[in-house]
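Notes continue from the previous slide.

Worked example: a multi-chain complex. Inputs as given:
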Amino acid sequence: MDETLKTAPPEAVAPASIEIDHLDFFYGDHQALFDINLAMPAHKVTALIGPSGCGKSTLLRCLNRMNDLVPVARIGHGQVRIHGTDIYGPNVDPIELRKRVGMVFQKSNPFPKSIYENVIYGLRIQGRTKRSDLDEVVERSLRQAALWDEVKDRLHESGLGLSGGQQQRLCIARAIAVEPEIILMDEPCSALDPIATSKVEELIFELKKLYTIVIVTHNMQQAGRCSDLTAFFYLGKLIEMDRTEKLFTNPAEKQTEDYITGRFG
Amino acid sequence: MKNPNRFDRKRLRIDHFIKWFFGSNALLAIIVLALITLFLFREGAEFFPQNLQNLRNYRLAGLEYVGLMRDQIEAHTALNRSLQDLRLRQSNALLKAGKTPEQVTAALARFDAFAAAFDSSVDELRGVISELTDAVTEIKDKAKLREDALQQRKFLLTEGKRAEADAVPVAKIDFAAQLAPIKAAFPLYQKTSLVFRGKIETLLLQPPSLPVREFQPRFEQFQKAARAYLTTFPATERKLAEWNQFAPVPWHRAITSFLFGTEWITNSFWQDWYGVLPLLTGSVMVAVIALVLAVPMGVCAAIYVSELASPVEKQLIKPYIEFISAIPSVVIGFFGVAILGEKLRELTQWQALSWISGFPISERLNAFTAGCLLALMAVPTIFSLAEDAINSVPRAFKEASYALGATRLQTVFRVLVPASLSGIVSAVLLGFGRVIGETMVVLLCAGNRIAIPDFTQGVSSLFQPVHTMTGIVAQELGEVPNGTIHYRALFMVGLLLFFLALCINWLAQAVVRRYKISIG
């Protein structure tokens, strides 16, 4: 397995944005991730696929240290480096880290506030109050999230009044308002209808010009459509990682082939 | 008809029984509540006609007439009291300055002579008015006897004993004739009051100078008040002359004199008043003090336990706070009487606090003591409900906030508290309901003085003894004869409390309803 990883994917000539090095991860006594080695290049979309419970969401949450909020979660061994910095190092403030590594959740979760306040939440907690700056950020973020035209006349209405797909794009706008370098997406389309899904997928395609994106998905077609690289996980182990079209057309491992052809999982 | 399946029939019967059992329990609760409401209304509603009769007799028997004169005596007494207070302050200041008691008496000799002359100036007028007072109370007693007789007759008639009812003697009272000698005393009153005014005027012309200069403004204030007092006489005389014994008392006075009456006086030789305002003020004041203390404590504890505490702390704090609500209120009241009241008074005697007007406080048991204890009782209610509200905020909000780089405190104050605000508000309202209905603690610790606190005194008005609606019902209901106006008045107080609690609960529910919609 190590062999497949050492041969870095051709696209990854660009400097790797995220490097995961021999990572073991535990929930209490239960080991959730086994010796993960992975490099995700900048300005690419990396998809994590695999059956439920295989650890792909856990890995995603390791990247912005959201797992810190789970009392029993801990890193056993290994490193996660973002731009060469070990994010679990002693000098790293998880609050600062999360400003640079944004996240979009499976279920859209706008705050019970206005659309405007939702977008600038990240700026508000950084103490930025200048009205013109905030207005500018709101417009830019909503335009990037392809939501501006739909909501520009009702910015001060509740974010909970939007449709499911709009809510999810609002959450994306909220994440990019703080100008992160990396955006983590945890099954962002699993609660959306096909039309909303395709809008979010188009958005992902646009966003990768500006951000490095890591996306967890259950939907094989989605991984195929919008990702550059795909990593397949099974039972907490990384089975295979490669360019997306290679992994889907000519997987190196038998398990991968079985999974993507729907024989299990 | 034949049922093919025995088993089904049996199950039907069990279902039926279960439905009947639960339904009847719910029904019983509703019936009991309805009966309580009905009973309160039935006992209380009679109050208004009785109160109207009470007010009418006040006028018919001439109490209102003589009352106008008595008010003047009382105003004089109040002035006299302020003079005595001034005397005390001066002698204290002099003693503090190192004078011997003899020297103090000598220094204040002129002032004392002035005060004594002021005090005795009213004697003749008081004599006249006290005779009139005796005369009108006699009329009032007659009217009372007559009413009792009428009541008895009515009772016998409802029992169907017509002969006995007719046998009850009902004296006829000619109020006009009875009051004639009192009205005839008006010239005498005029003459004595003129003499009285003359005396005070001469006194005020030559006020003594005070040995302690710093009290001069106070003394001048007194003189000004005394002059203002003198100017009220012509108006009173005019009122007395114009007073009409048979002027009608409008029916709504029976309600307004209850709701807005500032006096609750019972078993008085003079006139009984049933004004709920002092009690309502007392109840609300104690409740507000309690809430001001309990809301920050309860809400902050809830935030701490649900968001910031470690699991061990959580396991310690939560049961401990909830345990407070298990302490019987009489025990808390006992603690207030035995310890807290005294400790609070000691605290106010502390030098560093002496700049606050009215400190050190004189009463050990007062609104603040009761408020502190009620706060203790409200904290568990507010804490539990606020914690539920905060916990019911979806986890997703919290995660979203953390993922954007918010700290724990930012997440609490920018997301969790706003999202659970309606829940917290309803927790506070229910805490208010808990506090305003509490009886034992206020009865033991609020001081039980039936008077509206003097709010002009600033902070120290919080430390005045008050009486409450719940306290008065508990205290007096056991002693009043069934069916009297006093008995009915207490029921009206209970009814008012009932409405207050109803409104608070309704408000809390309305707030929660809104909250559910906003979370969607």
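Summary box: The longest helix of chain A spans residues 131-144. The interface with chain B takes residues 64, 66, 69, 71, 95-99, 102-103, 105, 107, 109-113, 121-122, 124-126, 158, 160, 171, 174-175, 178 of chain A (CB under 8 Å).
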